[in-house]
Amino acid sequence: MVLSGAAAAVFLGGVPGLVAAPVAALTTWVVVERSEPAALRRDRAVARRDLPHVVGLLADALRAGQSPTEALAVVVTALPGPATARLAEVVPRLRLGLDPMAVWGEMAADPALGRLGSAMARAHRTGAPVVPAVERLADELARSAHAEVEDRARAVGVKAAVPLGLCLLPAFVLIGIVPVVAGLLTSLGL
Predict the structure, then answer these.
(1) Does the model's pTM come out above 0.85?
(2) Is residue 67 part of a domain?
(3) What is the number of domains present in the chain?
(4) Among 56, 63, 100, 145, which is 20 to 30 Å from 164 by CA?
(5) Inter-CA distances, 7 with 18, 27, 189, Å
(6) What is the CB neighbour count within 10 angstroms for residue 81?
(7) pLDDT range class, residue 140, cuts 50, 70, 90
(8) Quick one: 86 and 176 in the same domain?
(9) How many CB atoms are closer than 10 A to CB 98?
(10) Dist. CA 144–CA 104, nearest whole Å
(11) Domain that holds residue 21
(12) pLDDT per residue over 38-53, tens digit each?
Protein backbone atom coordinates (compact mmCIF):
# COMPACT_ATOMS: atom_id res chain seq x y z
CA MET A 1 0.00 0.00 0.00
CA VAL A 2 2.75 2.41 0.98
CA LEU A 3 4.78 1.36 -2.04
CA SER A 4 1.89 2.03 -4.42
CA GLY A 5 1.46 5.51 -2.93
CA ALA A 6 5.19 6.16 -3.18
CA ALA A 7 5.23 4.91 -6.77
CA ALA A 8 2.37 7.23 -7.70
CA ALA A 9 4.13 10.17 -6.04
CA VAL A 10 7.43 9.46 -7.80
CA PHE A 11 5.86 8.70 -11.17
CA LEU A 12 3.64 11.77 -11.29
CA GLY A 13 5.90 14.05 -9.25
CA GLY A 14 5.07 17.42 -7.74
CA VAL A 15 1.59 18.33 -6.53
CA PRO A 16 -0.24 15.76 -8.71
CA GLY A 17 1.97 13.05 -7.23
CA LEU A 18 1.20 14.16 -3.68
CA VAL A 19 -2.53 14.10 -4.46
CA ALA A 20 -2.39 10.72 -6.24
CA ALA A 21 -0.26 8.99 -3.57
CA PRO A 22 -2.99 8.60 -0.91
CA VAL A 23 -5.55 7.69 -3.58
CA ALA A 24 -3.26 4.95 -4.94
CA ALA A 25 -2.50 3.65 -1.44
CA LEU A 26 -6.19 3.57 -0.50
CA THR A 27 -7.16 1.90 -3.76
CA THR A 28 -4.47 -0.74 -3.29
CA TRP A 29 -5.60 -1.38 0.27
CA VAL A 30 -9.25 -1.83 -0.83
CA VAL A 31 -8.32 -4.19 -3.66
CA VAL A 32 -6.03 -6.30 -1.46
CA GLU A 33 -8.60 -6.54 1.34
CA ARG A 34 -11.35 -7.62 -1.04
CA SER A 35 -9.30 -10.15 -2.94
CA GLU A 36 -9.77 -13.81 -2.15
CA PRO A 37 -6.80 -16.00 -1.28
CA ALA A 38 -5.85 -18.49 -3.98
CA ALA A 39 -6.05 -21.42 -1.54
CA LEU A 40 -9.64 -20.57 -0.67
CA ARG A 41 -10.57 -20.26 -4.34
CA ARG A 42 -8.86 -23.60 -5.08
CA ASP A 43 -10.63 -25.33 -2.16
CA ARG A 44 -13.99 -24.05 -3.39
CA ALA A 45 -13.28 -25.32 -6.92
CA VAL A 46 -12.27 -28.75 -5.57
CA ALA A 47 -15.35 -28.86 -3.35
CA ARG A 48 -17.57 -27.99 -6.33
CA ARG A 49 -15.84 -30.66 -8.43
CA ASP A 50 -16.24 -33.32 -5.71
CA LEU A 51 -19.83 -32.42 -4.87
CA PRO A 52 -21.45 -34.89 -7.33
CA HIS A 53 -19.50 -37.76 -5.75
CA VAL A 54 -20.28 -36.59 -2.22
CA VAL A 55 -24.00 -36.25 -2.94
CA GLY A 56 -24.07 -39.58 -4.78
CA LEU A 57 -22.48 -41.35 -1.81
CA LEU A 58 -24.88 -39.53 0.53
CA ALA A 59 -27.81 -40.76 -1.56
CA ASP A 60 -26.46 -44.32 -1.39
CA ALA A 61 -26.05 -44.13 2.38
CA LEU A 62 -29.57 -42.73 2.78
CA ARG A 63 -30.96 -45.41 0.48
CA ALA A 64 -29.26 -48.03 2.68
CA GLY A 65 -31.36 -46.83 5.61
CA GLN A 66 -29.01 -44.46 7.42
CA SER A 67 -30.41 -41.34 9.05
CA PRO A 68 -29.30 -38.09 7.37
CA THR A 69 -26.84 -37.36 10.18
CA GLU A 70 -25.29 -40.84 10.13
CA ALA A 71 -25.22 -40.88 6.32
CA LEU A 72 -23.39 -37.57 6.41
CA ALA A 73 -20.90 -39.01 8.92
CA VAL A 74 -20.27 -41.97 6.59
CA VAL A 75 -19.65 -39.64 3.65
CA VAL A 76 -17.29 -37.43 5.67
CA THR A 77 -15.15 -40.40 6.71
CA ALA A 78 -15.22 -42.06 3.28
CA LEU A 79 -14.34 -39.07 1.07
CA PRO A 80 -11.69 -36.73 2.43
CA GLY A 81 -11.43 -33.31 0.84
CA PRO A 82 -12.64 -29.71 1.01
CA ALA A 83 -16.29 -30.60 0.38
CA THR A 84 -16.46 -33.14 3.18
CA ALA A 85 -14.38 -30.91 5.46
CA ARG A 86 -17.23 -28.41 5.29
CA LEU A 87 -19.76 -31.18 5.84
CA ALA A 88 -17.78 -32.44 8.83
CA GLU A 89 -18.73 -29.24 10.63
CA VAL A 90 -22.42 -30.08 10.16
CA VAL A 91 -22.36 -33.59 11.65
CA PRO A 92 -21.62 -32.64 15.28
CA ARG A 93 -24.14 -29.82 15.15
CA LEU A 94 -26.87 -32.19 13.99
CA ARG A 95 -25.84 -34.80 16.58
CA LEU A 96 -26.07 -32.19 19.33
CA GLY A 97 -29.68 -31.62 18.40
CA LEU A 98 -29.49 -28.18 16.83
CA ASP A 99 -32.39 -27.19 14.61
CA PRO A 100 -31.81 -28.98 11.28
CA MET A 101 -33.48 -26.11 9.41
CA ALA A 102 -30.90 -23.68 10.80
CA VAL A 103 -27.99 -26.04 10.10
CA TRP A 104 -29.09 -26.82 6.53
CA GLY A 105 -30.00 -23.18 5.97
CA GLU A 106 -26.46 -22.12 6.86
CA MET A 107 -25.09 -24.73 4.47
CA ALA A 108 -27.39 -23.37 1.74
CA ALA A 109 -25.42 -20.12 1.95
CA ASP A 110 -22.13 -21.94 1.20
CA PRO A 111 -21.04 -21.27 -2.41
CA ALA A 112 -19.90 -24.85 -3.04
CA LEU A 113 -22.39 -26.87 -0.96
CA GLY A 114 -25.38 -24.57 -1.29
CA ARG A 115 -27.43 -26.88 -3.49
CA LEU A 116 -27.10 -29.76 -1.03
CA GLY A 117 -28.00 -27.50 1.89
CA SER A 118 -31.04 -26.17 0.00
CA ALA A 119 -32.25 -29.66 -0.91
CA MET A 120 -31.88 -30.93 2.65
CA ALA A 121 -33.55 -27.82 4.12
CA ARG A 122 -36.42 -28.09 1.64
CA ALA A 123 -36.92 -31.78 2.42
CA HIS A 124 -36.86 -31.09 6.16
CA ARG A 125 -39.19 -28.09 5.88
CA THR A 126 -41.80 -29.85 3.73
CA GLY A 127 -41.50 -33.24 5.42
CA ALA A 128 -40.78 -34.87 2.06
CA PRO A 129 -38.55 -37.94 2.00
CA VAL A 130 -34.88 -37.01 1.91
CA VAL A 131 -33.73 -39.88 -0.30
CA PRO A 132 -35.52 -38.82 -3.53
CA ALA A 133 -34.41 -35.21 -3.06
CA VAL A 134 -30.76 -36.20 -2.61
CA GLU A 135 -30.93 -38.72 -5.48
CA ARG A 136 -32.41 -36.05 -7.77
CA LEU A 137 -29.69 -33.61 -6.74
CA ALA A 138 -27.00 -36.26 -7.33
CA ASP A 139 -28.35 -36.83 -10.86
CA GLU A 140 -28.47 -33.09 -11.58
CA LEU A 141 -24.94 -32.56 -10.29
CA ALA A 142 -23.60 -35.52 -12.27
CA ARG A 143 -25.22 -34.21 -15.46
CA SER A 144 -23.91 -30.68 -14.93
CA ALA A 145 -20.41 -31.99 -14.12
CA HIS A 146 -20.47 -34.10 -17.29
CA ALA A 147 -21.60 -31.10 -19.35
CA GLU A 148 -18.87 -28.94 -17.81
CA VAL A 149 -16.21 -31.52 -18.69
CA GLU A 150 -17.50 -31.68 -22.27
CA ASP A 151 -17.43 -27.89 -22.54
CA ARG A 152 -13.83 -27.80 -21.32
CA ALA A 153 -12.90 -30.54 -23.80
CA ARG A 154 -14.45 -28.54 -26.65
CA ALA A 155 -12.60 -25.43 -25.51
CA VAL A 156 -9.28 -27.28 -25.75
CA GLY A 157 -9.81 -27.79 -29.48
CA VAL A 158 -10.57 -24.15 -30.00
CA LYS A 159 -7.62 -23.00 -27.90
CA ALA A 160 -5.27 -25.37 -29.72
CA ALA A 161 -6.22 -24.06 -33.18
CA VAL A 162 -4.20 -20.84 -33.03
CA PRO A 163 -0.86 -22.34 -31.88
CA LEU A 164 -1.31 -25.21 -34.30
CA GLY A 165 -2.01 -22.78 -37.14
CA LEU A 166 1.01 -20.69 -36.21
CA CYS A 167 3.19 -23.81 -36.39
CA LEU A 168 1.73 -25.29 -39.57
CA LEU A 169 1.40 -22.11 -41.64
CA PRO A 170 5.16 -21.41 -41.86
CA ALA A 171 5.81 -25.07 -42.66
CA PHE A 172 3.20 -24.97 -45.42
CA VAL A 173 4.72 -21.81 -46.87
CA LEU A 174 8.28 -23.19 -46.71
CA ILE A 175 7.44 -26.65 -48.07
CA GLY A 176 4.59 -25.89 -50.45
CA ILE A 177 4.84 -22.33 -51.74
CA VAL A 178 8.56 -21.45 -51.69
CA PRO A 179 9.60 -24.37 -53.96
CA VAL A 180 6.86 -23.53 -56.47
CA VAL A 181 7.83 -19.86 -56.56
CA ALA A 182 11.55 -20.76 -56.80
CA GLY A 183 10.78 -23.16 -59.65
CA LEU A 184 8.79 -20.51 -61.51
CA LEU A 185 11.54 -17.93 -61.04
CA THR A 186 14.22 -20.28 -62.36
CA SER A 187 12.10 -21.31 -65.34
CA LEU A 188 11.57 -17.65 -66.21
CA GLY A 189 15.30 -17.08 -65.98
CA LEU A 190 15.16 -14.49 -63.23
Answers:
(1) no
(2) yes
(3) 3
(4) 145
(5) 11, 13, 64
(6) 16
(7) very high
(8) no
(9) 13
(10) 22
(11) 2-35
(12) 787 788 888 888 888 8
